[in-house]
Write a structure and sequence with these properties.
Elements lengths: L2 H11 L2 H22 L4 H14 L22 H11 L6 H6 L1 H5 L6 H4 L3 H23 L2 H25 L1 H12 L3 H13 L3 H11 L3 E4 L2 E4 L2 H12 L12 H11 L6 H14 L9 H16 L9 E5 L6 H11 L7 E5 L6 H4 L1 E4 L2 E4 L1 H10 L6 E6 L6 H5 L24 H4 L5 H4 L2 E3 L2 E3 L6 E7 L10 H4 L3 E4 L4 H8 L5 H19 L8 H4 L13 H21 L4 H12 L9
């Protein structure tokens, strides 16, 4: 894994403003939770502590304030309910679910949630009843309506802030949110948050909430202790803004990435902390004026970016489909750079009409029988199973794929491996090779003197397909063997790299309208020009001044030749000329608002 290449790509793919906005949004969620957890005054804490002591020996009592509360309808009485939602739950993300069940309870006050509704909605309503009951109990404790309402507001905002953080950072925890919220006393949740924010020893926090106290979750309507990984992830999210602790979010993805970077197992929490701390301290891809928790957030965003290049996310058979300039070649180059694939472990070919079977598989060239490019790399990968190999085919639809690949098509999904050692075939020239002196050299494998061919499991086959070449030459069964990734014009990329131009937003509108018209002309949404062609406009602009003169020059020298190639397969000469003239008229600042 080439970390430096990935860091460079991370900076190139993300504008400063985009990264800053993401850091700002995540930072807001964290600081908002910190603020909400610090809002409770001493009297409110006294109540929560006393209440917690009363519940500590019987977890199930908590359910009597939520899903098992027998008078849930009390909190849905018309005038009370409408005012309550408007006053306390206006910004609560799950408000709509609560409102949708008003009629379920409004006409029957003496019913529990568990007897009225099922599923995830039942948990949302249980949380609503739970929060209302805690506010009611505090009202009994302080005997003051205004203080009760103040406490309720703080409690609802706290649980709303927890949900917002989970939603921003963790698909795992957002799924567990309702179980955590309704199966634990608020005092315990507050203690976990405050410990994560202030304590200086991460391991002590984890031990405290696995030994002295435990966080519960809901499993099929029953109590279950929150699994250790989810607990540590919960703590790690909040600890991002704890200046005493240096770590990234603890989750399976982060562990996998640290394993790749340090080539050691980081699943043990002590190792995870060690590697996290080292990575954060040496991370340079963030503004120099970033504070420590902003730097940790930048690291986390980088980890998300990193995960997109994990081998597990790349199919052994991948096909990038996109028109000229959409970045097919760049995607592959980035992949090879980041995976740090050496020159001897990949082969790159660009197909054209003159390619035949001997170029890909084998055959006579003059009087010599030789292996083709694909067969050669299959043989290399077969003999070196501990390393990954890549075979890149550019423009796979620019030749007769039936002639080249039909006999090996099924092997694309029937790869040779330790668990599939019979995945061999005899190719059409195998009988010739059997009688040659150098048959071992010309065979991927040789068994009992017979030449065999296979596609090894450690060979990645990455292809590109340009719709401009049409689909006449490629069979559907071949495409079905590939994971297809469609690429289109990346207008965010254009905006990021053209923002120095005075009226760049007008230019983006021109490009969008231009591509929409191409798709309409050819009746195919995939037919368009990509950002790597359109970005060349920068070469025609001086002093950031975009005008109709340099637009016209750009169209004539860069766009028109590409359009002629694109239209040549689908339109007559006169149709092509007429449509190119029509498209040229779009490149006019006076016509774009």
């Amino acid at each position: 894994m080439n970390l430096n290449a990935l860091l460079e790509l991370f900076k190139n793919k993300n504008s400063d403003s985009l990264l800053q906005n993401r850091v700002k949004n995540l930072n807001y969620s964290l600081l908002n939770l910190k603020e909400k957890s610090n809002n409770f005054n001493e009297k409110e804490y006294d109540f929560l502590r006393t209440s917690y002591i009363n519940f500590i020996d019987n977890d199930k009592k908590i359910l009597d304030l939520g899903q098992n509360f027998s008078h849930a309808g009390y909190f849905f009485i018309n005038k009370f309910f409408e005012n309550n939602i408007e006053t306390f739950y206006l910004d609560f993300k799950l408000k709509n679910v609560i409102e949708s069940h008003k009629q379920t309870f409004a006409n029957n006050q003496n019913i529990s949630v568990s007897n009225a509704i099922k599923g995830s909605d039942a948990q949302v309503i249980s949380l609503y009843i739970f929060l209302e009951n805690f506010a009611r109990l505090y009202g009994d404790f302080c005997e003051d309506r205004e203080l009760k309402n103040s406490f309720k507001k703080k409690l609802v905002e706290l649980y709303g802030a927890i949900y917002d953080l989970f939603e921003s950072c963790s698909t795992n925890l957002v799924k567990k949110y309702l179980g955590i919220a309704i199966y634990n006393h608020p005092m315990l949740i507050l203690e976990l948050i405050n410990s994560s924010l202030k304590d200086d020893n991460f391991m002590d926090i984890v031990l405290n909430f696995t030994q002295e106290h435990t966080i519960n979750e809901n499993f099929d309507g029953e109590y279950e202790i929150l699994d250790n990984d989810s607990l540590i992830e919960f703590i790690s999210l909040i600890a991002i803004i704890n200046n005493n602790i240096n770590l990234v979010f603890y989750n399976k993805n982060s562990i996998k990435i640290l394993n790749l970077i340090y080539q050691k197992d980081s699943s043990e929490i002590s190792k995870f902390l060690e590697f996290s701390k080292d990575f954060i301290e040496n991370f340079k891809s963030c503004p120099t004026n970033s504070n420590i928790y902003e730097k940790k957030i930048y690291c986390q965003i980088f980890f998300e970016f990193f995960s997109n290049f994990n081998n597990d996310n790349i199919s052994k058979n991948t096909m990038y489909i996109g028109s000229a300039g959409t970045g097919k070649y760049n995607k592959i180059k980035e992949l090879l750079d980041i995976k740090n694939i050496s020159f001897d472990k990949y082969n790159f070919i660009t197909l054209h009409q003159n390619y035949d079977y001997s170029d890909i598989m084998d055959g006579f060239v003059g009087t010599n029988f030789i292996n083709g490019a694909f067969k050669n790399i299959c043989k290399k990968a077969y003999n070196d199973p501990n390393n990954d190999y890549f075979f890149i085919i550019e423009n796979i639809n620019n030749c007769d794929t039936n002639a080249l690949f039909s006999e090996i098509c099924e092997l694309l999904t029937d790869r040779f491996s330790n668990s599939n050692q019979n995945a061999f075939i005899r190719t059409k020239n195998a009988h010739i090779i059997d009688n040659l002196d150098n048959k071992e050299e010309l065979s991927v494998a040789l068994k009992n003197g017979f030449s065999l061919f296979c596609i090894p499991d450690n060979l990645y086959i990455i292809t590109t397909l340009d719709p401009a070449f049409g689909y006449d030459n490629i069979c559907v069964s071949l495409i079905s063997k590939f994971e297809v990734i469609k690429l289109s014009c990346d207008y965010d990329y254009l905006e990021m790299h053209l923002k120095d131009i005075t009226n760049y937003q007008q230019l983006i509108k021109i490009f969008k309208k231009f591509n929409e018209n191409i798709s309409t002309i050819l009746n195919d949404e995939s037919m368009q020009l990509g950002h790597f062609i359109l970005i060349k406009i920068k070469n025609y602009i001086k002093n950031s001044d975009l005008n109709n003169e340099n637009l016209a020059k750009f169209f004539n020298l860069e766009i028109e030749p590409s359009l002629k190639v694109m239209f040549s397969k689908f339109l007559t000469y006169s149709e092509s000329k007429k449509n190119i003239d029509s498209l040229k008229s779009i490149f006019n600042l006076n016509k774009i608002q």
